[in-house]
Amino acid sequence: MTKSTDHQMPELDFNTPALKRHRKIRALKDRMAGMGIAVGGSSVILAVLLICFYLLYEVAPLFSSASIDAEASYTLPAEDQGESLYLTTEEQAEVGMRVTSNGSIVFFSVADGSVIDTVKNLRTEKVTAFAVESDTSRLMAFGYEDGKALIVKHDYRISYPDSKRKITPVVEYPYGEDAVDVTDFAIRKLTLRDGSDSLTMAAIGDTSSAITKVTKDVNFITEEVELSEQSEPLPFVPDVASMLLSGNQRYLYVATRSGAMSEFDLRDFDNIELKNELSLFKDDATKLVSMSYLLGKSSIMVADSSGRVSQWFNVRNDETNEEKLTFIRDVKQPVALVDLAMEQRRKGFATLDERGLVAIYNATSTRQVLNEKLSDNSARLISFAPRANGLLLEDSKGLHFFRVDNEHPEVSWSSLWGKVWYEGYQEPTYTWQSSAANNDFEPKYSLMPLAFGTLKAAFYAMLMAVPLAICGAIYTAYFMAPALRRKIKPVIELMEALPTVILGFLAGLFFAPFLEENLVATFSILVILPVGILLFAYLWSRLPQQIRWLVPEGWQPLVLIPVVVFLAWFCLALSPIVELNVFDGNVRGWITNDLGITFDQRNALVVGFAMGFAVIPTIFSITEDAIFSVPKSLTQGSLALGATYWQTMTRVVLPTASPGIFSAIMIGMGRAVGETMIVLMATGNTPIMDVNIFEGMRTLAANLAVEVPESEVGSSHYRILFLAAFVLFIFTFIVNTIAETVRQHLRKKYGSL
């Protein structure tokens, strides 16, 4: 008898209080995790955008135009003293000075035009010529009918009575109150140049011209300065409009009203020669308006009746070793110019045209920062305040004072990214030189050498890192034994934790001198090591199987260690012999003298090795993970269909892992581009543009590290450094965008494998 029993499955209750509570908690955790991820991702995007906006905030003022505001207008101070020959102000732009046609010097308040003091002409003779040595030296000269010249200097003394600043103008006579004998004829045109050893003055009369040098000798007994004069005749040039003496008193430039320039060589004062003749005008100019020096007394600025202002300076010829006055660049206004004013501390100038319109330019960048009508067609003179924060303008109504805000006139896209012809250079160049010991120095802010150095350092680093890292990752992920892989991969990834400042320190102080002393060994290793490894692999494959099977599958790299060590030792041991017999014992001298290649101890080769060593772990780790993550079913299916391991690797694994490999390369490149300490310590840190592997460079990141702590907040230098940071930011953004685009394309293309 068979008994049948019913087995009923117990009913499961999924709505018990405990399960409901568990589901609620899990749902809450999911929502919190989602919110946390969203907030974190949004915060990262917001932080990046804030960085971008802050950089733009600091950079934007570089490209803003200047502004000018009228502050005071009044009748001409001491108008009864005659017409104005020269206008200027003192440092604070509170006290102005006007030199009149009768030789008087009038000091007045810039705020309201009230006369502070008037210094009358010391001589009874009529003033027939007037010259200013430079705005910064404050030295002037009056020429008279009797051929004499009175040297005058205006100065300003500051005191604080009752805790209030008081500026007292004074007039000094550095060569005495007695006029200096210059010529024996009435002076019509006059120029002067003062130096520590001598004062030179050139004068032109109605039919004659002469030059006088006043030599300063210090009496070694009394320590008094003794003056001795020497005068020499000059070839007469008719219809002279302007004259200039060079800053070193070597050359005299005489320009006629028609724009013909005569250049005299004064180096042999007993035998003055006409060095050169040239024309300052183009076809549309008919009259010379003004000729004066820029700051530094190197560049001559010529204004003509066509509205053009041209810049000229001496350029040395390599073949003849002679200097030649050369046209460099020009700017143009649509109508004829009336006056030209130079900034006293920058390479800037202002033009005044017949319409009363004032334009402000920077000479080097040729950037126009202001073009505004400030007067009617009766305007006659303009002058900058010493800090270029004020402008005096004289017209038929009197004097007008304007406040000028012009912070960054020297910056333009052409000066940042184009070739610029700087004073003292033989040709236009890309130059970064932000500071110097000389006050007359002109900052050079070309970003091209820094961008070039950044790409150069990254290129050589990637040239070393990419092949080693990718090939190492391929072998580690696909061919190496799992037990060995578990040891090798963490060691290589641990390399990334090594501070780059240590790598830079070792590269600069140890590896660079070692590389210089073992150049032959270094380059021979790059050739012999790969060839030796391939030869050893070939010989290993020809050994009997019993010997090869002694090494387990995937552990073969351990056998290569002694081979690599031996080949490296062999190259180092052979290096002195090769250098002695092939390069006469000095391979660096052979590179420099025979090949004509400049060699710097800290160069791109050192950076390539050091920074490549730092980038390898990043590329290796990401590439190895990408290859190792390829599904085993793909490799097993390929092998089952008869493909070899190499065919499977090249045709299945690598295409599938290509998005990850490309990302690894781009991330490694981003690391190389942004690297600071290695390139700072292991290169010459010189901002030059040279593809030579034996020359150094300066990168954008290294330049920021060096110069940001020393820059003045708010200055052009400071903001251009922020611009360099923005360029680095944009470059990284572009690289990452390209990387993501290519990665998505590769994923779509090979995602079906």
TrEMBL record:
Domain ABC transmembrane type-1 span(s) in chain numbering: 451-739
Keywords attached to this entry: Membrane, Transmembrane, Transmembrane helix, Transport
Coiled-coil ranges from the UniProt annotation: none
Membrane topology, from the record: Multi-pass membrane protein
Transmembrane segments: 33-57, 457-479, 491-513, 519-539, 559-578, 604-623, 652-673, 720-739
Pfam families: BPD_transp_1 (PF00528)
Cell compartment(s), UniProt: Cell membrane
Main location: membrane
UniProt similarity note: Belongs to the binding-protein-dependent transport system permease family.
This protein's name: ABC transporter permease subunit
